[in-house]
């Protein structure tokens, strides 16, 4: 096979695709944090409606995890740890806030959160790629072998 066509080690596989994946995954977290900042009362109301205590702390925690975690993921800094944290956050929020699976909309949100967790686990397993702050600082990388 021609080296230019070898998907195992080309720049697309080791640089561009991991960057695109991180940016797309980070987008939903950053966008969600901005939405919570824009309408904090709605988020606190939703937290309260789910029977959870301390909606102000829940709001602050969610904004922190989503905004900081999303930005760290986008830039590829401490990527594996951040991806694991965001995966856990995605599963917890799926179970706490989207557990009414008889409602098709809630089922879709539950599955979306679980799918995001799966993608984040892939990032944790295979690393951020060569276009990341982790790569620039020499953090250990493990790239997928196809």
From TrEMBL:
Membrane topology annotation: Multi-pass membrane protein
Name of the protein this chain belongs to: Putative oxidoreductase
InterPro entries noted in UniProt: DoxX, DoxX-like_oxidoreductase
Pfam families xref list: DoxX
Coiled coil regions, renumbered to chain: none
Regions crossing the membrane: 12-34, 54-74, 81-101, 107-127
Family stated for the protein in its record: Belongs to the DoxX family.
Keywords from the UniProt entry: Cell membrane, Membrane, Transmembrane, Transmembrane helix
Cellular component terms per the entry's GO annotation: plasma membrane
Cell compartment(s), UniProt: Cell membrane
Organism: Pseudoduganella violacea
Signal peptide range in chain numbering: none
């Amino acid at each position: 096979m021609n080296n230019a066509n070898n998907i195992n080690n080309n720049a697309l596989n080791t640089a561009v695709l991991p960057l695109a994946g991180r940016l797309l995954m980070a987008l939903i977290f950053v966008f969600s944090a901005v939405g919570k900042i824009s309408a904090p009362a709605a988020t606190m109301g939703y937290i309260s409606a789910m029977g959870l205590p301390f909606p102000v702390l829940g709001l602050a925690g969610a904004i922190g995890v989503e905004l900081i975690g999303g930005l760290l993921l986008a830039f590829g800094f401490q990527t594996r740890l951040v991806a694991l944290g965001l995966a856990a956050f995605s599963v917890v929020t799926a179970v706490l806030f989207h557990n009414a699976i008889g409602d098709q909309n809630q089922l879709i949100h539950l599955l979306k959160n679980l799918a995001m967790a799966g993608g984040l686990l892939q990032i944790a397993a295979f690393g951020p790629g060569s276009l990341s702050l982790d790569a620039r600082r020499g953090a250990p990388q493990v790239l997928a072998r196809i």
